[in-house]
Specification:
2 copies of one chain form a homodimer. Chain A has 387 residues and is of the alpha/beta class. Chain A has helices spanning 22-28, 42-45, 48-58, 75-88, 99-111, 119-123, 186-204, 212-234, 239-252, 266-278, 282-297, 302-313, 320-337, 354-362, 375-386; strands at 4-14, 33-37, 62-66, 92-97, 133-138, 150-155, 160-165, 173-176. In chain A, helix 10 (266-278) packs across helix 11. The radius of gyration of chain A is 20 Å and the shape is globular. Chains A, B: GO terms for molecular function: alcohol dehydrogenase (NADP+) activity; butanol dehydrogenase (NAD+) activity; metal ion binding; methylglyoxal reductase (NADPH) (acetol producing) activity.
Amino acid sequence: MLNFTLYNPTKLVFGESTIETIGEHLVKSGIRKVLIVYGKGSIMKNGVYDTVVESLENNNIDYIKLSGVKPNPVLSKVQEGIKLAKENEVDGVLAVGGGSVIDSSKAIAAGVCYEGNVWELFEGKGSVKKALSLFTILTLSATGSEMNSGGVVTNEDEGKKWSFGSPLLYPKVSILDPSVQRSLPSNQTANGAIDAISHVFEAYYGGTESTDMLDELSEGIIRTVITHTRELLKDSNNYKSRSELAFAATLALNGLNGVGRKGDWASHSIEHSLSVLNDIAHGSGLAIIMPAWMKYVYKEDVKKFAKFACHVFTINEGSDEEKALKGIEALRDFYKEIGAPITLKEVGVKREELDFIADNAAILAPLGTLKPLKRDDIYNILEIAYE
Amino acid sequence: MLNFTLYNPTKLVFGESTIETIGEHLVKSGIRKVLIVYGKGSIMKNGVYDTVVESLENNNIDYIKLSGVKPNPVLSKVQEGIKLAKENEVDGVLAVGGGSVIDSSKAIAAGVCYEGNVWELFEGKGSVKKALSLFTILTLSATGSEMNSGGVVTNEDEGKKWSFGSPLLYPKVSILDPSVQRSLPSNQTANGAIDAISHVFEAYYGGTESTDMLDELSEGIIRTVITHTRELLKDSNNYKSRSELAFAATLALNGLNGVGRKGDWASHSIEHSLSVLNDIAHGSGLAIIMPAWMKYVYKEDVKKFAKFACHVFTINEGSDEEKALKGIEALRDFYKEIGAPITLKEVGVKREELDFIADNAAILAPLGTLKPLKRDDIYNILEIAYE
């Protein structure tokens, strides 16, 4: 196990009928006026918006609103939010939505307190020294953003989907009521599950040193996600499975699963380049890219890929190499089973676009640690993913 | 899964050569003068004391010392620490040792800021409104106190070993360098492992609702503890296994494993009464009491006991009841294998003392949730544990 620091000050409030407590949490944190950030209006339909506003009003919290954050959230919306927050002198940001809403809110919370252009924080040209307090109400379990300090935003002018982060951006309080996810369509549930599994992989395969305790956690998260995603595709309304999937997705990227190992985020980087150029859902992109990456790199640590196959898919027969390959195939089969695309062709990417995607991803190359990927490696992985 | 709040602001700094950073962490937290609390001097022998003092001096942190905290720590020592801290106007407490040192330090940190007698905080007659900042350097993995907000102290005048806690008592920073545990004797390693396993059980068996994700974590912790305790009893110097056991023991009681389930702390309560009256090591007491408790209550949730047997000891044959009983037997065998006592008789308890222990534990009855234990139930468990 590598040396590490484990630190996460977010208070996660989990369970049914917890959203109505948001006003009290804001009062306890000394917040008087918030910017509510949300997406395209699903929170109007499922009653979450009304519950939030009622709680704010009952607790005399003033608020203004920024709506219209879209999946693969964009920088222009972040800048709109920063302007609005400054003009209205809010002292906190309340994200109500999924990962795109929370990530945008993190950029707004940091951007309000940053002198330059907020994109500089993504480019590494500036760092977060101060941020507004952030609070979240999660409506789609996937990214883990509700309990971590990072975010991903797309600069649409430059065609870059990049990440940033700071310990100042841990949400103060995150409310996670799994029951509001009952109305999610199957594809969103599946995409969330794929995102969570990918986050686990990115730590799991990113270190060849002894990490038994962490591997136990990783494998446990993946098994839980697989079991309860299957249940939810049978019955979207199953609260038990909504809770298990939600909690597992939070644990997949709240920092714990990431400590003590080097990590390897190559697949996420490639997917970002894919989705910035094609605007496909992040989970769908990962379902395509992750197994292709696995096929390309498994020889770097055959034993670990065999361990995964054995512990997650109970594949116990054959050599380590055979197990490793069967495990990757089983993962791909699972993604197919839950309705995810598993080739680039399926989502409308043309073969002649692969160069362009590879070039975009290669801006940040070398990617990953298990096998540091150069531009040609990225292209090869896209080829494997193509059909 | 029950509704829950997950919150833990402790910064855990884990790995080799981390102790020397303590001074910097204190400076960052604005601390100028600390009370160093430690035990009977093992930190003098293994070099930890010198490293700590050098780091404090390099960072211009003033300090005074309280030594002599013993296992099953006592109230009189806590009161000595409170007096010393007040007289010297320290602004922080630095615990350097195992659970008994950290627990005593928590009571000191709270007691300094409490008007009445600190024991009132254990009796529930008062609550912690303010506390000195607490920092820890862990030298024995067992209790999890380095990353939680509770503690246990014995009031030797009243013969009560009771617990207390407050969110204000999470350590600000806890440093855990597993390499300093290389010199521990086998029985201390084993006792720490048994304590950690018991903490997991206390959540695992305390809830019949769906808790798949948490059960995965629980079972993963126990498997890790079993594997690496065995390794350490072969080679005390194995850093890999020291790290795995240390991290697993922290995760066993840092709050995460305890959320979403009711919990059942009956065994711990009974053990406290046993060890306050007989001054045996907490881990040894748990090795005796826990399997006896399991035998007495398993019928309340046979499926869960069978699941444990299957997932931890790979016992797949027979009815659920048979699996459950075999699992309890396997646990007892493991405790025996690592040199722990498994009967009260072995540790010198006389049969005629069982009444006295049961009476002491029954002060807090009913104990636990799986089967709320009355005085006679406690006596019956002690009878099972006797020989």
